[in-house]
Design a protein that fits this description.
Blueprint: E1 2-3, H1 6-20, H2 24-43, E2 50-55, H3 59-73, E3 77-83, H4 91-102, E4 107-110, H5 113-123, E5 128-132, H6 145-156, E6 160-163, E7 185-189, H7 202-205, E8 207-211, H8 217-222, E9 228-230, H9 233-237, E10 254-258, H10 265-276, E11 282-288, H11 292-298, E12 303-307, H12 319-325, E13 330-333, H13 341-353, E14 358-360, H14 363-366, E15 383-385, H15 389-396, H16 400-405, H17 407-418, E16 421-424, E17 430-432, E18 438-440, H18 453-468, H19 471-493, H20 500-505, H21 507-522
Parallel strand pairs: 2-3, 2-5, 3-4, 5-6, 6-7, 7-8, 9-18, 10-11, 10-13, 11-12, 13-14, 14-15, 15-16
Antiparallel strand pairs: 1-9, 16-17, 17-18
Amino acid sequence: MRIFNAAQMREADRYTIDEVGIPSLVLMENAGRQVVAAIEAAYEPLLDERVGILCGKGNNGGDGFVVARTLIQRGVDATVFVIGTVADVRGDARINLDILGRLGVTVVEVADEQTWELHFSEISQCSLLVDAIVGTGLTSPLAGMMETVVADINASGIPVVSIDLPSGISADTVHLVGDCIDASMTVTLVAPKLPLVVPPGEPFAGDLVIADIGIPPDVIEGLDGPRIDLLTPGQVRALIEPRAEESHKGDFGRVTIVAGSRGKSGAACLAAMGALRSGAGLVTVATPAGCQPILASMTPEVMTEALAESSEGAVVTAALETVLALRHDVIACGPGLGLGPGVAAFVRGLLERSTIPLVLDADALTVLADDPSILEGRGERPVIITPHPGEMARLVGMTVDEVQSDRMQVATGFAATRGLYVVLKGHRTIIATPDGRVYINPTGNAGMATGGTGDVLAGMIAAWLAQLLDAEAACQLAVFLHGAAGDLAEDRHGAVAMIASDLVACLGPALKELAASEHEDAS
């Protein structure tokens, strides 16, 4: 599902009105009615009491006037407040405001802070508020009376439904430009806006509903500008092909996982189980010789290969020949691998000499932090890296806070510069491709902030890459299912008690749930 910025939203409106021929008033009417439908679905009991509708002077306010008319015609006790002067309301918004007047609906003008204070006692008696004050046109922080309006609404504790964006949030940046409405639900029009799906704006959106107001899908897909998508069940489900009855294990890829070191065999095990539970036909764990018997006893479905090791129990450069000689379609390298010059030399050698797709995670990234220039995608051999924010910070020479404050820009910049795929893990994991596309994952939860879940993801990406032979698709599917399994594990165990093995156990149910959602979509 495509994510829009303000300019793309304006162009979608313009093209639909001027080229397709759907009048702007029709789009506004559709928007208002879709908001009402969302309110009725989520807050129907509150409609038996009073609803306050706060409208600005622009098109967002116009949508609010349609909401007010529709609710009043359905018998709801709704009061309309114009935040500003009525004389400033123009265009389609003015047409819908005038319709309210001709229907005998009283509209309260709130032009200054004194008037706001006068009417706030009335507003505070409402059971539900509709925020139609400012939409995608916002470019600077709210000031003056608007700051007071936002503060009072947020302090009231009344559920708020925002139209398109909570007032105070700008559609053109992931950063908060100032104070904003803390909405219980946001009904965003046509497509999600970036600050609604990533921190720090995401929590202020509440439950997110995407409203179809009649802009054709071809218009949405054909817009120029940044290509950012929110992963959806339908999108990732379409990547999975049914298995033929005559299939055999060789049809689903051979994955080699280079992982583990003394005391860190568990990381290798988790990566292997992530690959197996994601459908890889054959999985081999290549691990230091001292870890091999441990891995063999932990995972009977996995083949193992002993690698030359240092006195500290980590791989050394000589292990490279053994790994390159194995038969495989994808190599995942890094979970629990350890640090030190021998590991660094091994990883560098793997990047330089391997001709098959690589997934690099954890220690394989840390040992390259001093000179990440070797991390390059090369022709037909895709490279996927899966850093958490700390590993990403080391690769780009920034602090973790700097990475977290601009996650998407950091990931896309590194992916484009190095010609590889970046899966920047964390809340709302970001997938950045070499050609500038970005995917944001909506699944997952805070319970996944526990050791080993990243190892599982590395194995999953390798497995889906071995099956799909498409790095972009493999990242999308693995990341979405990883989060979905985490959500199921949280339901079963709670966020605090959940561990990485719980996530592995939920990969099968997550896949089944994804497949079942196709029938829900069809119905």
